[in-house]
Amino acid sequence: MDMQIDILTLFPESVDAMLNVSILGRAQERGYIAIRTHQIRAYTTNKQMQVDDYPYGGGRGAVMQADPLYRCWQHICDEAGGRVHTIYMSPCGRVLTQQVARELKERYDHLILVCGHYEGVDQRFLDECVDEELSMGDFVLTGGEIPAMAVTDAVCRMVPGVLSNQESGETESFSGSLLEYPQYTRPPVFLDKEVPEVLLSGHHENIRKWRHEQSVKRTKERRPDLWEAYEKEMEENNGNK
Q: What per-residue confidence (pLDDT) applies to 172?
């Protein structure tokens, strides 16, 4: 097994429904990856299985308690035989990008992802157990499950053997600094729109050039920030030759 991810959540069923099917489901069956969800409520010590309480100092809503989170986290670390790199899904963290996902895949073979809810998590758990925080962007979600699933998918799909064709993971959007080129399949004509002739030519070098040109065009038009990064990367590469 090349990657294990443990997810602390109040809704393991919803996470399992997404991550145990399709590509990731098959990759788990074949032993390339392991994705486990842990119900935080199972680690409470009260009959009500309460995981939240009012915040000290007042304020709206409730805060997730440190104790059940810590018990769950410690159980995973004990099974692993040591501390596991732990990520809290939070708008306060750095934004998830393909480069961040690649960094996580290359640096770690085991991750713990913590899904927050309510108005947040007791800071003492974060200080004691969390190594970094990751954000999906500048917007608010009702919980950390969707971000955790995004991180899991982005990281696991880069593990060798997970994708049926590893090249497909290397040439698509954000693998480099350019967006992916347009894709076409049968039929050759749809709503009077034809597949570009070059793709039907069988000339592999011309197809490669056309796809690169389309990637450049699309990136310039839709993501000028990525185009700027691409130009900078090309300049640095040329300077190092």
A: 52
